[in-house]
Write a structure and sequence with these properties.
alpha/beta, seven-stranded mixed β-barrel, two-stranded antiparallel ribbon, 7 helices, 13 strands, 19% helix
Length: 273
């Protein structure tokens, strides 16, 4: 691990010490001149507005205590409950691969490192059922005059983050339950493109600014199966991808370390050099 990455990890772990240096705005927050670069938060906050899969348990925050104690000092504490897969989160390989890694087993080298962004928003925003194709990936390579780098983290920008947390515009429906699955409409990675990435490009992880790496109308979740079967984790419900360049940045994606977890809430940031 290079020194800038190690330094930024330490900065994140001890951010409470220098909280005044960080923006209070979660969506769109960035910090100029941090270790020679800029931090961009790619995570949505967790609240009653958080978008979840239509069959998943919603986020709940319960107040345990808030106020002054009989000893005279202020104290506050909450309990929270949430499904693994909701809001900005990670899909661990075991989510769709029987022998895949669980959240706690994913190597940090898959979650931290150089990244690229492929912007397909000009096509996807006009078509909520858009499937990101092999041609879209190859067009990025032609524009950038390079192949998708080996060991990179690939972020796919559809532009749908602008609709979050409006479930109707973001997911295609505000309904919940099994019957609502048929009403889902949002872009995703085509099965052919997922297979191409696995067979032709050796990437570490992939992320997207929609509820799923597979598009909303998928019934077989083939892109999930293809990627996760190769222990390539997926980051879903990302935001602020429009604030990133096409390359020249690094990703730090640290999920809650749930033993045996199939997924987990994810705090993911980009460091633009």
């Amino acid at each position: 691990m290079n020194k800038p990455l190690l330094s930024i990890l330490l900065l994140l772990f001890f951010s409470c010490i220098e909280q005044q240096n960080f923006s209070k705005e979660t969506n769109g927050s960035s910090n100029e001149n941090v270790l020679g670069g800029k931090l961009v938060d790619l995570s949505h906050t967790y609240s009653h507005e958080t978008v979840y899969w239509v069959t998943a348990r919603l986020f709940q925050l319960d107040t345990v205590f808030k106020g002054f104690t009989d000893k005279g000092y202020y104290y506050s504490a909450n309990n929270f409950s949430t499904a693994e897969h909701g809001g900005t989160h990670i899909d661990a390989p075991i989510h769709f691969a029987e022998k895949g890694q669980t959240v706690d087993e994913i190597p940090l080298t898959k979650l931290i490192g150089p990244a690229i962004k492929i912007d397909i928003s000009s096509k996807a925003l006009d078509n909520p059922d858009y499937l990101i194709s092999i041609n879209d990936l190859m067009e990025w390579e032609a524009r950038e005059k390079t192949k998708i780098p080996k060991g990179s983290i690939v972020l796919l920008q559809t532009g749908f983050a602008r609709y979050y947390p409006d479930r109707v515009r973001y997911m295609g429906t505000a309904a919940r339950g099994i019957l609502a699955i048929k009403e889902l409409h949002f872009p995703g990675l085509s099965p052919e493109a997922a297979k191409w990435i696995v067979e032709q490009r050796n990437v570490h992880a992939i992320g997207i600014d929609t509820p799923s790496i597979d598009y909303g109308q998928s019934e077989l979740f083939e892109s999930h199966v293809t990627l996760l079967s190769q222990n390539i984790p997926a980051f879903e419900n990302l935001t602020n991808l429009d604030k990133l360049p096409s390359r020249g940045f690094e990703i730090i994606a640290l999920p809650m370390k749930i033993k045996g977890g199939t997924g987990a809430p994810l705090r993911i940031v980009a460091l633009i050099k």
